[in-house]
Design brief:
The chain is an all-alpha fold and about 45 residues long. It is built from two helices and no strands. It has helices at about 15-20, 20-35. The radius of gyration is 17 Å and the shape is elongated. The mean pLDDT is about 90.
Length: about 45
């Protein structure tokens, strides 16, 4: 904002989920496996 002289723009509630979606998916897979599930991921 100050550096580029641009107005503030809200990035959105899911901003970090969008930029780090692979880590979020891996964390969910690990949690499911810890609960005793076998996880198989396929592209949509």
């Amino acid at each position: 904002m100050l550096k580029n002289h641009l107005p503030y723009q809200e990035m959105g509630a899911d901003y970090f989920a969008k930029i780090n979606s692979k880590a979020i998916a891996n964390r969910a897979i690990k949690q499911l496996e810890q609960l005793g599930y076998q996880v198989k991921i396929e592209a949509a």
